[in-house]
Every structure is written in structure tokens, then in C-alpha cells.
Amino acid sequence: MTGLLLKDLYELKKLWLQPKFIVTSTIVIIAGLLFFSSSAILISIFVSVFFINTIQTLFVNDKKSGWILFVQTTNISSFKIIYARYLLSIIVCLATTLINASVSLILWFLYKHLSLKEYLILALIFLTVTLIYVFIMIPFFYAFDENGLTIGVLLCVLIAFLASRTPGFSSQAITYLQSITTSQITLIGVIMLVLLGALSFLSSILVFQKKG
């Protein structure tokens, strides 16, 4: 499994370490810090999301190179193959969160628009959202390869639209959240995130085995 993880890291490293990518990302973040202090965290998030979306290239490259067909001829279990990809995705989410936390720390030191605690809470929210995004998208990547992102996003937008159109859904959700404590909201969020991750992982294994 370590070999699978290193293989994915190597492919991402080749993409991330391209001079044009490094220079552009660095310039954008620095410009945000110096000239757009109020929007710097949003700029940092935008760059981080680009990092996360490069995960899709792994699935595209696997299809083009025939990697999946090759690895299925080995004794490596589907569980280990999927687990390595999820582990890499979580590492990428943590790395991008670290970038945002660093930008938040610099913003707090230079401008103090928000308190340090508020900036760190924003970084934690970013980590949660990126994990949800990755957990939702990976099964679509396995199922639809390069079209997975488009199909996954469209489906999520459709579900969100239908939920917003459900009578009383928004008001009931807001009322419920207001009736419980912050610690309870956090606990519910963690449980839901773990359940989503488990469901996503199981779905990816089933799709992978079916396509194999």
C-alpha cells in the first residue's frame, strides 16, 4: 500500500512542481496578502481548491496508462488500492488546510481584521468542507473517470436545489441548529463526516470491483 501512495504522490508532485504552477500560485497568494487583505483568505482558498482538484488527474492518468488493469493482475486487494487513494486525498486536504492556516496567521499578524481564533475556525471549516467534497467526488471519479467532477458537481447542485425547494426544510434545519449547543453541532458534524467517509469508501470499492 505504501507503494501505491508513493506512486500517487509522485504523479501529483510532477504536476505541482511545474515552475509556472509554483510561480503563479505564489504570486497570487502574496498579491492577496499585500493588496487585497480582506480577500486574501478567499484567494488562498481558491488556490487550495485547485490543488485538491488535481486529485482527479490521478484517475485520468490511471485510465490512460492502464494502471488499473495492471494492478488488478497483482495480489493487491481492492481495499488497499482504494484506501491508498483516500489516504492521499486526506493528506492533500490537510496540506491545503495548512496553507490556509498559514495565510490566516499572516493576516492576523498584519491586519487583525479577525481574531486568531476566528481565522483558525475558518481554516477548520475549510478542512471540513474539503473532506466532504473529496468524499463525495471520489466515487464519481472511479465511476466516470474524467467526467466524474462534472457529473458529481451537477448532481450535488441538483440535490441542493431540490432541498431548498422542499417546504420548510431550511427553516426547520435552522431552528434545530439554533436549539442545540456548539459542542453538539460539532459532534453531529464529526459523526456525519465519518459516516460520509465510510459510505464514500464503500461505494468506491463497489464501483472499482464492478468496473474491474
Automatic annotation (TrEMBL):
Keyword Repeat: no
A Pfam cross-reference name: ABC2_membrane_5
Keyword field: Membrane, Transmembrane, Transmembrane helix
Keyword Transmembrane: yes
Residue ranges of the TM segments: 21-52, 86-110, 119-142, 148-164, 185-208
Record protein name field: ABC-2 family transporter protein
Organism expressing this protein natively: Alkalibacterium subtropicum
